[in-house]
Amino acid sequence: MMDLDIFQCPACKKSSLREAANFVQCDSCSARYPVFDRSINFIEEFRGLSETQKAQKKFYEADPTAYPQVNMNDFIKDVIDGSRLTTKIYISHKQFDTYRQIKKLNIRASNKVLDVGCFDGRNCFLIEKLAGAHCYGVDISLSAVRRAQSHARNSALQKSDFHVALAEKLPFVDRCFDRVISLDVLEHIEDKESFLREIDRVLKPKGTALIYAISKHDRHSLHWTLRKISKGTLGRDEGGGHVYENFADPVETRALCDRLHIQTVHIEPFHGFFSLFLDEYLSRRIGYKIKYFFRLARFLDTPLSIRKIGNGFYLRIIK
Fold first, then answer.
1. Is residue 112 assigned to a domain?
2. Do residue 73 and residue 192 come from a single domain?
3. pLDDT tens track for 229-250
4. Number of domains within the chain
5. Does one domain contain both 31 and 82?
6. What's the mean per-residue pLDDT of the chain?
7. Nearest Cα to 168, choosing from 116, 211, 113?
8. How many CB atoms lie within 10 A of CB 5?
9. Per-residue pLDDT tens for 1-41?
10. Which of 14, 122, 175, 272 could form a disulfide with 301 if both were Cys (CB 3.0 to 4.6 A apart)?
11. Statement to judge: residues 12 and 103 lie in one domain
């Protein structure tokens, strides 16, 4: 039997779910959600997907190259060892910084963690490895959840649960997570207000959320420079289901948080010019010295950082 206490029906927002043979049913509105491999598909029967959601779902379920073939045990070891400089290993600045940002969340084994837009589960597995915490991952893509399940079966990391759900209609009860992460997802979301409102809703008092997004506020960043030089043919951040119109602006995002009465918000730009150049052109050539190059690149990006300019930004919410 599944533990359904943490879930609520995304259709009627009632926490009256019960498990049947191959589905979970809401006793309040009679909605049924298919169950597969102890995961729940909360959107299969949902008919209200926007055109943006349909496009994102189609891309990540139809493109065979969307999910790289990785050995998750080896990947997590590479990220941790590479970040600690215990071995000569090649990781990107982005992977290094994701590790750094997750470590700053001070996750404990007793915490419940949610990863919104969990992709193939790698950040859930990283959190499980670092803290031993129970992590829930949700993604709009059934293929993503199945890939995460496969990684769990083929690794020693099996405390995480994965479900198919919309970021704008999270199937969880109020104030149930100590930490929420959502990395490289906000730029895919059209209705950013619903996304942020849901993150705030499921976060416990004194909980922390960490969000990373591609930024529209990228003037003088590397990709902005490439677009200027190439007259728009390079540096477009397209692919991977990205649509420029949905990219987030840190100033607008902060203003939206203010309107939603999300009180404590910190914004940190990332990938200005030199750090992105390092990631895209040098990371695989400098090996174990990479940490010091990362620090140098961030220092050189300071003039952009103080103006909140970058190819992306972190949004940290403390409730």
1. yes
2. yes
3. 998 888 888 777 787 888 999 9
4. 2
5. no
6. 89
7. 116
8. 10
9. 678 999 999 999 998 899 988 999 999 999 999 999 889 99
10. 272
11. no
- Element containing residue 298 per DSSP (H, E): helix 290-300
Query: Is the Cβ–Cβ distance between 135 and 107 less than 8 Å?
Result: no
15 and 134 within one domain: no
Q: Are residues 161 and 29 in the same domain?
A: no
Q: Which domain holds residue 291?
A: 46-318
How many other CB atoms are there within 10 angstroms of residue 47's CB atom? 5
Q: Rounding to the nearest 10 degrees, give the CA dihedral for residues 83, 88, 91, 93.
A: 60
- Separation of alpha carbons 227 and 235, rounded Å: 5
Distances (CA, A) of 163 to 139, 174, 280: 7, 17, 32
At 163, give phi and psi (nearest 5°).
Answer: -140, 155
pTM flag (> 0.90): yes
Of 135, 121, 117, the C-alpha closest to 240 is 117
